[in-house]
């Protein structure tokens, strides 16, 4: 996702915004309570850190101005490239400048930020302003996995990032392809494929029958985002990251080797050059009708339908040629990756903590968040139960009900990104391993090296410290798929 977000930062015009129609909502306690309590701070300013570029249009042009209008509190948005946000937050906290009040953080960063003392515990604010009930409406996979560290609330889950399978209903439903599939494999073509074996057989057959017009599938193979796809598939194949007692890395076990080996085999029936596909290349291939299946984040589903792509801020999105021909489902294996995501937090260094908390409670509330996840340009994906069932959202395009149903299923079955101390160092080892895979090296040898690097990182951090952080993460209900 880093490549995806860096691209958007570079291509989006932060000042450009074409307004879309917004539904009117009756205020509920989370939003109304925050507004009423915040009026005492009228005339003050809340500074919030946000991803630079396209995503920042939410607080810049929508939520920030609306909050100021309702409370008299100005919102100062500090745009920071995604790859630098974690470092900027940490540096500011250590400097003690109090420059930031509210924060936009990835859940995978939270253990490190909490350990550094950079995040304010939010439990007392949630209790004081009666927000606990509304937190229960956040889908459990986000609420139970992306809100707390060691039992305390440090972030309000605010983005339903999850991988979804997108497939061409016209291609998979083509009688010619279905007949050829049954003749070759002896069973009916599954729509959609539910296992990786089914997916690979369907994808390879489509390429064989069509000659690559379209190809059976393509993926984001760029290592920056591919590491999340490895995390997902590895665990769906039965893998675990560490031996819980010794903290020795186990990514080089058979599930990891199988994942890498299958990737290499899949590339043979995918478009030439797929090894270098990033978020945008893969998006273009799917929207232009060059591939029949893919896996990515929720915006693909909206843009494939053409929703919001006439806005100036989304002028870079290729015009969809497949609107009305796309189906949505959870990824093969049934447990998609919660790849990335964001939570709203308060800086422990802020001198304006209560006002900052009230702002993020208001943004995160039922009705305001429902408006925000329908903004095509903001890249905030549905994360509350009410988002998935909202009739207005369902009316946005003909297949929107199926899209939201797939996201809701993913929100019940998704698995959490690895979130321990210095997670990015472990992820970087996987990224390097994927690069080596595309250069033709042996999957087992690569993963043996990755495991050795993980062991070295763990030893540098301290085995006992990391063991405690891993135990806290692994105890969450969606760290691993349920055992059969």
Based on the model shown, name its key terms.
three-stranded antiparallel beta sheet, mainly alpha, single chain, D-Maltodextrin-Binding Protein, domain 2, 484 residues
Topology:
Layout: H1 2-11, H2 29-38, E1 45-51, H3 57-71, E2 74-80, H4 82-95, E3 102-105, H5 110-115, H6 123-128, H7 132-135, H8 140-143, E4 148-149, E5 152-153, E6 156-157, E7 164-168, H9 169-172, H10 175-185, H11 196-210, H12 223-236, H13 254-267, H14 279-287, E8 293-296, H15 299-304, E9 326-329, E10 337-338, E11 343-346, H16 353-364, H17 366-372, H18 385-389, H19 391-394, H20 400-413, E12 415-416, H21 423-438, H22 443-461, H23 463-474
How is this structure best described in words?
With 484 residues, the chain is mainly alpha-helical. It has a domain at 2-160 and 340-405: D-Maltodextrin-Binding Protein, domain 2 (3-Layer(aba) Sandwich), CATH 3.40.190.10. 48% of the residues lie in helices and 9% in strands. It is built from 23 helices and 12 strands. The chain has helices at 2-11, 29-38, 57-71, 82-95, 110-115, 123-128, 132-135, 140-143, 169-172, 175-185, 196-210, 223-236, 254-267, 279-287, 299-304, 353-364, 366-372, 385-389, 391-394, 400-413, 423-438, 443-461, 463-474; strands at residues 45-51, 74-80, 102-105, 148-149, 152-153, 156-157, 164-168, 293-296, 326-329, 337-338, 343-346, 415-416. Strands 3-11-6 form a 3-stranded antiparallel β-sheet. Helix 10 packs across helix 11 (196-210) and helix 12 (223-236) packs across helix 13.
């Amino acid at each position: 996702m880093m490549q995806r977000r860096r691209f958007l930062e570079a291509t989006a015009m932060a000042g450009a915004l074409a307004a879309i129609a917004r539904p009117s909502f009756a205020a509920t306690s989370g939003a109304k309570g925050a507004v009423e309590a915040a009026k005492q701070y009228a005339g003050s300013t809340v500074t919030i850190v946000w991803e630079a570029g396209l995503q920042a249009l939410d607080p810049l042009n929508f939520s920030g101005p609306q909050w100021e209008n309702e409370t008299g509190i100005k919102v100062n948005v500090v745009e920071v490239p995604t790859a630098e946000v974690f470092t900027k937050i940490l540096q500011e906290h250590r400097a003690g400048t109090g420059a930031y009040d509210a924060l936009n953080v990835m859940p995978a960063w939270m253990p490190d930020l909490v350990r550094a003392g950079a995040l304010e515990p939010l439990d007392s604010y949630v209790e004081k302003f009666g927000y606990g009930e509304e937190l229960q409406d956040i889908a459990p996979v986000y609420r139970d996995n992306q809100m707390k560290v060691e039992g305390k609330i440090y972030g309000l889950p605010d983005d339903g990032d999850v991988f979804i399978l997108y497939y061409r209903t016209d291609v998979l439903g083509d009688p010619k392809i279905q007949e050829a599939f049954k003749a070759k494999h002896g069973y009916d073509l599954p729509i959609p494929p539910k296992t990786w074996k089914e997916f690979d057989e369907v994808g390879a057959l489509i390429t064989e029958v069509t000659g690559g017009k379209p190809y059976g599938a393509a993926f984001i193979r760029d290592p920056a985002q591919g590491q999340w796809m490895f995390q997902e598939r590895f665990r769906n194949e039965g893998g675990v990251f560490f031996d819980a007692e010794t903290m020795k890395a186990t990514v080089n076990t058979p599930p990891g080797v199988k994942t890498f080996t299958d990737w290499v085999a899949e590339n043979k029936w995918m478009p030439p050059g797929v090894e270098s596909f990033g978020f945008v290349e893969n998006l273009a291939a799917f929207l232009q009708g060059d591939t029949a299946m893919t896996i990515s984040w929720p915006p693909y589903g909206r843009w494939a339908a053409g929703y919001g792509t006439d806005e100036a801020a989304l002028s870079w999105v290729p015009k969809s040629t497949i609107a009305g021909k796309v189906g949505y489902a959870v990824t093969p294996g049934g447990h998609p990756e919660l790849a990335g995501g964001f939570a709203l937090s308060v800086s422990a260094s802020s001198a304006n903590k209560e006002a900052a908390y009230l702002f993020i409670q208001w943004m995160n509330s039922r009705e305001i968040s429902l408006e925000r996840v329908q903004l095509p340009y903001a890249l905030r994906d549905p994360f509350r139960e009410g988002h998935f069932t909202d009739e207005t959202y369902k009316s946005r395009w003909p297949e929107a009900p199926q899209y939201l149903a797939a996201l809701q299923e993913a929100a019940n079955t998704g698995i959490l990104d690895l979130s321990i101390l210095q997670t990015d160092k472990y992820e970087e080892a996987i990224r390097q391993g994927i690069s080596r895979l595309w250069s033709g090296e042996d999957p087992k040898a690569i993963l043996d090296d990755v495991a050795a690097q993980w062991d070295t990182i763990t030893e540098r951090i301290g085995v006992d410290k990391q063991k405690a952080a891993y135990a806290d993460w692994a105890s969450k209900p969606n760290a691993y798929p349920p055992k059969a």
